Amino acid sequence: MHIKAEPPYYAVIFTSRRTEGDNGYAEAAARMGELAAQQPGFLGWDAARTGPELGITVSYWKDEESIAGWRNHLEHAPTREHGRANWYEDFEVHVARVERTYRWTKES
């Protein structure tokens, strides 16, 4: 996804290893994506998964207040707890301030 914002902004990097089976994960992930996109300060996200071995989701935010707003969202908080109990073997979250960015696209 191309982020249409000039730095500085923030990136929340979520890396995870999933448990076996879907167990409602895909539906909940789609819902969380819809909700995050509606939050003040949300700029976009990128995600990749290599099966259960590794998943990486990076969400981009205007500022730390926007990140806190999403973290405390009424529907996000219980879904996050459900994930700890049912969907993840482990995960890590990193919050970083993006100071510089560039893009390259191959010409057709």
Note down, in words, how this protein is organized.
The protein has a domain at about 10-30 and about 65-100. The two termini are about 20 Å apart. With about 110 residues, it is α+β, with helices and mostly antiparallel strands. It is built from three helices and four strands; from the N terminus they run E-H-E-E-H-H-E. Helix content is about 30%, strand content about 35%. It has a four-stranded antiparallel beta sheet.
In short:
Keywords: Monooxygenase, Oxidoreductase. The protein has helices at residues 25-37, 64-71, 76-86; strands at residues 9-18, 42-49, 55-61, 88-98.
Low-confidence stretches: none
End-to-end separation in angstroms reads 19 Å
State the share of residues found in helices, binned by percent: 25-40%
N-to-C SSE string, H for helix and E for strand: EHEEHHE
Structure annotation, total helices: 3
| Helix/sheet category | alpha+beta
Rg for CA atoms: 15 Å
The order of strands across the largest sheet is: 2-3-1-4
Q: How many distinct beta strands?
A: 4
GO molecular function, one term: monooxygenase activity
Keywords: Monooxygenase, Oxidoreductase
Protein name: Heme-degrading monooxygenase HmoA
Organism: Amycolatopsis xylanica
Write the layout of secondary structure elements.
Elements: E1 9-18, H1 25-37, E2 42-49, E3 55-61, H2 64-71, H3 76-86, E4 88-98
Antiparallel strand pairs: 1-3, 1-4, 2-3
